[in-house]
Amino acid sequence: MLSNQEMDNVILEESKYVINTYGRVPAVLVKGDGMNVYDINGNSYVDFLSGISVNNVGHCHPKIVETIKKQAETLIHVSNIYYNIPQVNLAKKLVNISGLDKAFFCNSGAEANEAAIKLSRKYSKAFGKEGEIITMEHAFHGRTLTTITATPKPKYQEGYDPLPTGFKHVPFNDIEKLKESISNKTAAIMIEPVQGEGGIHIADQEYLKAVRELCDDKNIVLIFDEVQCGLGRTGKMFAFEHYGVKPDIITLAKALGSGIPIGAMIAKDEVSNAFTPGSHGTTFGGNPLACATAITSINLISELLNNTNEMGVYFTDKLKKIEEKYDFVREVRSIGLMTGLELSFNGSNIVQEMFKQGYLINCTSDTVLRFLPPLIIQKEHIDGMVSSLDDVFSKI
After folding, report:
1. What is its EC number (predicted)?
2. Residue 283 is labelled as binding a ligand
3. What is the number of domains present in the chain?
């Protein structure tokens, strides 16, 4: 990538004025269109990350842009002291497509998970439980103090002691270990049906069914965190639809607003009734701009599910051939267009080399190349990316 003074100035000023919390790639992105983003030098990149599963309908989709413009000219924000029509319409849509009963809106996945934790604890108090939450190893639930405690990774927790109490962690996909961990304190079990940040680990069919039965038997709230794996990413609107299992609470964010910040928690009536006026709230959650955009996002995603499944199979087949070719590729894990390619070494250099080739991917859990392309992807995009990946691998 060619450098110029303008790009260097932006990077210099970022280091001067922005708190250093990100290990950034040296690119100043200024435009997005469909599958592509463009930097300040005019270089284009095919986006196989989608803002980490945010731009599921592609960058700057005309209908998203039109919705934002129209709503911004009408009403951007009002307090939740008052009613607003886009919020009610979005809640109705999410309830209808999820099969749950009530929605709460916030601004991010971490906030949605905080709301789910609070609601499950408040609900469980009526049954004399102490509010313990069980989460899974390799999980990721957010960056607030509570959600990093729910996320059993020391690198996210280091330096933030004392952490909130009341969390327990067990191995993913291990029903026996989960059974052993349950006590009369257990209020909720929180699971990502597909662990994204953890390295694209997919829940077993029988495991989730057994978890649902366990929760029913013990009167435990079952929370599915679908912040990353929800909203079309797996080829269905919700990942839980693959399993024939319905949670008591589901959390969403990322693709819900196509880049406009919004999170949602949807819950069954029996559980949601534990919240009453004053129990929880947020200033910006459910504002008209975000909710109107989310409605358009859902409508567009629903039209892309067939393509997601078709391209997901095609992409997986291509990566399986890469797996057969190189002995340092340990495994390909994929569902829909949520794909991980696990290496036997740290993959950060591969991400850099792919960037030089004009492709945006990332590496999670040190060794897993993660691919989360927009759901509008076509075969030629996959062919080009896999060809470049093959070229990079051949030089190792």
Report:
1. 2.6.1.11
2. yes
3. 2
110 among annotated binding-site residues: yes
Q: What is the pLDDT of residues 226-252, one digit of tens each?
A: 999 999 999 999 999 999 999 999 999
Q: Please indicate if the annotation marks 204 as binding a ligand.
A: no
- Is there a single domain that holds both residue 16 and residue 67? no
The reply to whether 330 sits in an annotated binding site is no
Output the CA–CA distances (angstroms, integers) from residue 158 to 24, 92, 132, 135, in the order listed.
21, 40, 22, 19
Task: Tell me the C-alpha to C-alpha distance, in Å, between residue 331 and each of 323, 326, 340.
Answer: 7, 11, 8
Of 302, 337, 369, the residue at which a domain comes to its end is 302
- Residue 113 and residue 251 in contact, taking contact as beta carbons nearer than 8 Å: yes
Q: Is 226 annotated as a binding residue?
A: yes
Residue 119 sits in which domain range? 63-302
140 is in an annotated binding site: yes
Residues 119 and 192 in one domain: yes
The response to whether 315 counts as a known ligand-binding position is no
